[in-house]
């Protein structure tokens, strides 16, 4: 059996299943009939020869001079640097890496402290599996409540945080502190005068006590929705329809004030509550439209009568002036005659006399 070993390779010589030695670049002859077996391997990366335990190979000085032995302590991760570049994460208790053509170095990262050391470079995280650490991102306008083994340990502001999961379970509850809008739609209410209406409301609020909110309240939005709904039914039901339509802004102010009195128990700060829409039943809406049309018609009639009175009064004053002043009367006649003439295309003169004489006769002069 002829064996050729290249410059970058080595061979593990086995005889009858037992390890004998290593061979390097060259040509060798081993008779297979005598139980020899040679396994060729590239001397790069991790040692892949697994025919015998690593403990047996460690007794071979030639092997040990060409490898870097790796032993990762409990609670730590090994980062393997090949050619001074991080290339792999080592978690095995014991392993061997070739250190012939590519220099190998192992550095350790301690996972026993939950908070990840800031000296851990971000480019290393792409090599480390997600099962070993937790990444927490807190955006502007948010707050994080950090729990370790279900115990609140810290409050986190905006930023990116990394925690090891080796010693403790890590959980972060992120609370949005920005202003939120809550829509309360289609609330059917019976007014004091027995008219069924529907209200659409909107409320704005923000979280004021994140820690107590997480510990005491589940689904604060649903609870605020229910509470505002009950207050609206209790308060608005006291008024008649006309009063509700007239006091829309006042009712909104009362609802906001009432919720501010109770906001502490919900761990929020209520900013505003307003009535967006008041939806009337079809029959009531038709009746109100009829009333509105009648009111507008009445207003139009009043304006028309007022103008007619003013016009009549003006005519009366003009008649008095013309009765007292004959010259003014003649001027008015000439003005009327001028308007008549502007509407006439041709003027035919019949009878005796000139046009001027006939106009004088018409004017009585």
Structure overview:
By secondary structure, the chain is of the alpha+beta class. Helix content is 35%, strand content 34%. The chain is built from 10 helices and 18 strands. It has helices at 54-57, 61-64, 122-125, 210-216, 220-236, 241-246, 248-262, 282-324, 326-342, 355-363, and strands at residues 2-5, 9-15, 18-23, 26-29, 36-42, 67-70, 76-82, 85-90, 95-98, 104-110, 133-138, 142-148, 151-156, 159-164, 170-176, 180-190, 196-207, 268-279. A 3-stranded antiparallel sheet has the order 3-2-5, with no helix packed on it. It has a 3-stranded antiparallel sheet with strand order 8-7-10, with no helix packed on it. Helix 5 packs across helix 7 (248-262) and helix 8 (282-324) packs across helix 9 (326-342). The radius of gyration is 50 Å and the shape is elongated. The mean pLDDT is 81.
